[in-house]
Write a structure and sequence with these properties.
The protein is 30% helix and 24% strand. By secondary structure, the chain is α+β, with helices and mostly antiparallel strands. A five-stranded mixed β-sheet has the order 7-4-11-9-10. A hairpin with a 4-residue loop joins strand 5 and strand 6. The radius of gyration is 20 Å and the shape is globular.
Length: 234
């Protein structure tokens, strides 16, 4: 945020003729005029598929939530808005590390199992912190729906492309082996149609896999490009 503020102050001075226009600031100015996020801002930002105006709104909402959820309360939130974190993958990994340290087990042995809380839809509905793991919200299922009555993946409705998931409980488990005949490991990304490669060659847009109950074969969901996202184009 401080980096962004510095750029905006530089632009202000440039526009009143106090500074000469550099190539980097010229690129920032062109992007602002075309409503796109400048590359130098995107490199320090969360992955996003939105134009500049929507990106700015998202940045403001994230900062407000982080301040209210962490700074003002003085402790971690009861439910985590994964769509408001810069790096939700690192948040989830920290919970696995704590569980592994508490049990004196290698981190590689730990992974998450998942439970969809059908009756808890919003962050405000969560009253208590889970005994283990974390509650997460702000997750959209794209290309499939969710049958609340059976607690299982289902076909989309004719007029729907995505489904906003209820609160999902991420539960750290050692040596967990899911039944792949009854579950689908849904890939989970921060933003739709984004590629954000890190310095070590990994996709920074990818978060993890979420195991959801399913009665269809994984191949069928794969062909439909079913995935979970924190942010969609729609």
């Amino acid at each position: 945020v401080s980096f962004l503020r510095c750029d905006l102050l530089l632009l202000r001075d440039l526009l009143v003729g106090q500074l000469e226009l550099s190539s980097e600031m010229a690129e920032v100015l062109r992007c602002i005029c075309s409503n796109t996020v400048p590359s130098r801002w995107r490199q320090r930002s969360f992955p996003s598929c939105r134009p500049l105006q929507g990106w700015f709104i998202g940045l403001k909402i994230r900062m407000q939530w982080l301040q209210a959820a962490w700074s003002q309360r003085g402790h971690e939130p009861l439910c985590h808005r994964l769509d408001f974190y810069w790096r939700p993958r690192q948040l989830l990994l920290s919970y696995l590390r704590v569980a592994a340290q508490n049990d004196n087990v290698a981190l590689e042995a730990y992974s998450f199992r998942h439970k969809v809380l059908e009756r808890i839809e919003e962050e405000e509905d969560v009253q208590d912190r889970p005994a283990t793991g974390l509650y997460c919200v702000g997750i959209f299922l794209y290309g499939a729906g969710w049958d609340r009555r059976k607690s299982i993946m289902a076909d989309c409705r004719p007029d729907e492309l995505f489904y906003r998931m209820p609160v999902i409980h991420f539960i750290p488990s050692a040596d967990f082996k899911p039944n792949l005949e009854k579950t689908y490991a849904v890939p989970f990304y921060q933003a739709e149609r984004q590629s954000h490669m890190t310095s070590d060659g990994e996709d920074g847009n990818y978060i993890t896999e979420v195991l959801l109950r399913s009665h269809k074969s994984p191949k069928e969901w794969l062909l439909r490009s079913v995935a979970l996202y924190c942010e969609l184009m729609a």
